[in-house]
């Protein structure tokens, strides 16, 4: 045998052996931990999403070393249905959960969840706080033991969340919407998200030397109402610097069925004292400013908890081995369109932050001793400047998280669900976004859409319009969002069969986002929709129905020079 040939291969063998010892090829071989951070009712009011007001240094710092999806959307803008949707990677018409009153494994199908899939692949799966929606929607157990290795943790102080603990100026206690508090005066002397953070850090420390990888999901309770947060966070947002929503009036062409009357806010004592008319109000301007102030302060409070957990990743030597995802279950209206809370198909209710960090992929591996996530004191008064990370402008969805995380962790890929998948335990109705995380987005994908939906009990606005029980649903608003427009059809819905009648059109909305980014000018009536409506009832699913409709509309808009 040629001596030079042998020496060459021996040299290559030694080089590879040295590289393996140095960990050069660890990206492909090692198992990464997963840290999934989920905020409640958080729209992308964050510095890394170019919000000029909110102070969110820790989430911004995470974004600077991550891929940031700027157009990510929930599948239904209410907690229970959204969480079951993204944790199973199935849309609400597949989970059959539109309210809080059923458990998908019984009512729809025995679908495998995201943590369950990781658990079946050898991960220790851990839940802290609000991950699944509590109650019937997760079998009164947060889907334990299917999804979790040990019973989920719930902070003891959460039982006081809706109690009369908000001190008024006269010292009396109320159950208010605006509820900035002295934490030391609270029952148990703490707050739920403070307890969540401490438990998450304890679990990280317990897992730092484990031979098994972990999947830790941490569900924060804020900025969900009531705004029961430490009082000091209000100092970050002086009331005199607060402004109203840029479009605080109900749009003239908004169908009644599309409006949400924010009934959950109306139940709080301080809002009841305003004697607001139903359904439109409006809320007095000075109180609107206070709501916005408290929401922004709640975001900074959550950001501080995120910072403490990320700092713990560094302290325990886990930052180089852990994929981090930060997101929310849906958004929250802050006075846009004369609306508050979620319960709609507008961007402000459906759009969410979605940030994914994988060491060695979205940023280089940290060097020995280097801190990736040092804690930042937001009260120091300096606004930290961070890079923007890798931005993705193409439209994505929360149902994409499950197949994406599975891919990034090196697990077996999920197959795509067929049009009817009620009897299939493991498949995805989302898309794998791993390629957008591993590689810079080269061009905007104008063929990408998100699909959201929202139920209503009637065409007119009622007390239960925000959150009707399944038996009361008569209309479903199916909405498709591209980079160019949002298109919504409000159609008849059969709550017994959980099926829409796509030819029974009650109302429609069409917003051209280039000229109307706030979705205030409904131009639905300016376009000819009739010629394709007869096709919609024979297609296999509403997503396919609307996709065909949108293709038709897109060609029409392009021919008119609008797109």
Considering DSSP H and I runs of 4 or more, what fraction of the residues is helical? Answer: 25-40%
- Counting DSSP H or I runs of 4 or more residues, the number of helices is 16
Mean pLDDT level? 90
Give the class from helix and strand content and strand pairing: alpha/beta
Family: Belongs to the sulfatase family.
InterPro entries: Alkaline_phosphatase_core_sf, IDS, Sulfatase_CS, Sulfatase_N
GO cellular component, one term: lysosomal lumen
Subcellular location: Lysosome
Structure, explained:
- This protein is α/β, with parallel strands linked by helices and 563 residues long.
- It has 16 helices and 18 strands.
- It has helices spanning 3-22, 26-29, 57-64, 79-88, 92-95, 104-107, 114-120, 192-207, 263-266, 269-272, 285-315, 347-350, 401-408, 434-438, 530-536, 542-559; strands at 33-39, 67-73, 124-129, 166-167, 173-174, 178-181, 214-219, 227-230, 322-328, 333-334, 340-341, 351-357, 390-392, 396-397, 450-456, 475-481, 485-494, 499-512.
- The strands form five sheets. Strands 1, 2, 3, 7, 9, 12, 13 and 14 form an eight-stranded mixed sheet that branches. A four-stranded antiparallel sheet has the order 15-16-17-18, covered by helices on one side. Strands 4-5 form a two-stranded antiparallel sheet.
- A hairpin with a 5-residue loop joins strand 10 and strand 11 (340-341).
- Helix 3 packs across helix 11 and helix 8 packs parallel to helix 11.
- The longest helix is centred in the middle third of the chain and has 31 residues, at 285-315.
- It is globular and about 60 Å long.
- The N and C termini lie far apart (67 Å).
- The model is unreliable at 1-28 and 534-540 (pLDDT under 50).
């Amino acid at each position: 045998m040629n001596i030079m040939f042998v020496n060459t291969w021996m040299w290559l063998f030694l080089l590879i052996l040295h590289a393996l010892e140095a960990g050069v090829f660890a990206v492909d071989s090692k198992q990464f931990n997963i840290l999934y951070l989920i905020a409640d009712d958080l729209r992308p009011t964050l510095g890394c999403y170019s919000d000029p007001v909110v102070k969110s240094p820790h989430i911004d710092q995470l974004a600077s070393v991550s891929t940031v999806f700027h157009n990510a959307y929930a599948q239904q803008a209410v907690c229970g249905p959204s969480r079951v949707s993204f944790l199973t990677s199935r849309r609400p018409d597949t989970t059959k959960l539109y309210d809080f009153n059923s458990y998908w494994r019984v009512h729809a199908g025995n679908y495998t969840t995201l943590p369950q899939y990781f658990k079946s692949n050898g991960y220790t799966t851990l839940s802290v706080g609000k991950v699944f929606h509590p109650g019937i929607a997760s079998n009164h157990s947060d889907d334990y033991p299917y999804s979790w290795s040990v019973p989920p943790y719930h902070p003891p102080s959460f039982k006081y969340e809706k109690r009369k603990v908000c001190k008024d100026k006269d010292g009396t206690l109320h159950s208010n919407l605006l509820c900035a508090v002295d934490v030391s005066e609270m029952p148990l002397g703490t707050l739920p998200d403070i307890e969540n953070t401490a438990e998450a850090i304890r679990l990280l420390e317990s897992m730092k030397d484990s031979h098994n990888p972990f999947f830790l999901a941490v569900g924060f309770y804020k900025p969900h109402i009531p705004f029961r947060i430490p009082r000091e966070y209000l100092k970050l947002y002086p009331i005199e610097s607060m402004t109203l929503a840029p479009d605080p009036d109900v749009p003239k062409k908004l169908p009644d069925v599309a409006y949400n009357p924010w009934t959950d806010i109306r139940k709080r004592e301080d809002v009841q004292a305003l004697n607001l008319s139903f359904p439109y109000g409006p809320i007095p301007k000075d109180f609107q400013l206070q709501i916005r102030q408290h929401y922004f302060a709640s975001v900074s409070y959550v950001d501080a908890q995120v910072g403490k957990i990320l700092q713990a990743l560094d302290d325990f030597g886990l930052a180089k081995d852990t994929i981090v995802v930060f997101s929310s279950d849906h958004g929250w209206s802050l006075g846009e369109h004369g609306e508050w809370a979620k319960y709609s198909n507008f961007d402000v209710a459906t759009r969410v932050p979605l940030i994914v960090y994988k060491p060695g992929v979205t940023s280089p591996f940290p060097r020995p001793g280097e801190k990736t996530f040092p804690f930042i004191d937001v009260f120091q008064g300096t606004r930290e400047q961070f890079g923007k990370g890798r931005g993705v402008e193409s439209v994505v969805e929360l149902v994409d998280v499950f197949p994406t995380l599975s891919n990034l962790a090196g697990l077996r890929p999920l197959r795509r669900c067929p049009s009817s998948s009620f009897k299939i335990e493991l498949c995805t109705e989302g898309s794998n976004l791993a390629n957008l995380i591993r590689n810079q987005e080269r061009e905007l994908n104008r063929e990408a859409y998100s699909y959201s939906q929202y139920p209503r009990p009637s065409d007119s606005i009622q007390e239960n319009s925000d959150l009707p029980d399944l038996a009361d649903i008569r209309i479903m608003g199916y909405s498709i969002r591209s980079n160019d427009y949002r298109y919504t059809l409000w159609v008849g819905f059969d709550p017994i069969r959980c099926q829409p009648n796509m030819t029974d059109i009650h109302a429609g909305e069409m917003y051209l986002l280039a000229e109307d980014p706030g979705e205030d000018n409904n131009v639905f009536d300016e376009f000819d929709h009739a010629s394709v409506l007869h096709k919609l009832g024979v297609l296999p699913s509403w997503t396919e129905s609307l996709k065909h409709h949108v293709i038709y509309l897109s060609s029409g808009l392009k021919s008119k020079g609008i797109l």
